[in-house]
Amino acid sequence: MHPIDRILRASLLIAALLASAAVWWPAPAQAARIKEVASVQGVRSNQLVGYGLVVGLDGTGDQTTSAPFATQSLLALLQQMGVTVPAGTNMQLKNLATVMVTAQLPAFAQPGQTIDVNVSSLANAKSLRGGTLIATPLKGADGQIYAIAQGNMVVGGAGASAAGSKVQINHLSAGRIPDGAMVERSVATPIADGDSIQLDLHSSDFATAREVVRAINGRMGSGTADAVDGRVVRVRMPASADARVTFMAEIENLDIKQAMPSAKVVINARTGSIVMNQAVTLAACAVAHGNLSVTISTTPTASQPGPLARAGQTVVTEKADITITQQAGALVQMAPGAKLADVVKALNTLGATPQDLLAILQALKSAGALTAELEVI
Question: What pLDDT sits at residue 118?
Answer without folding.
Answer: 96
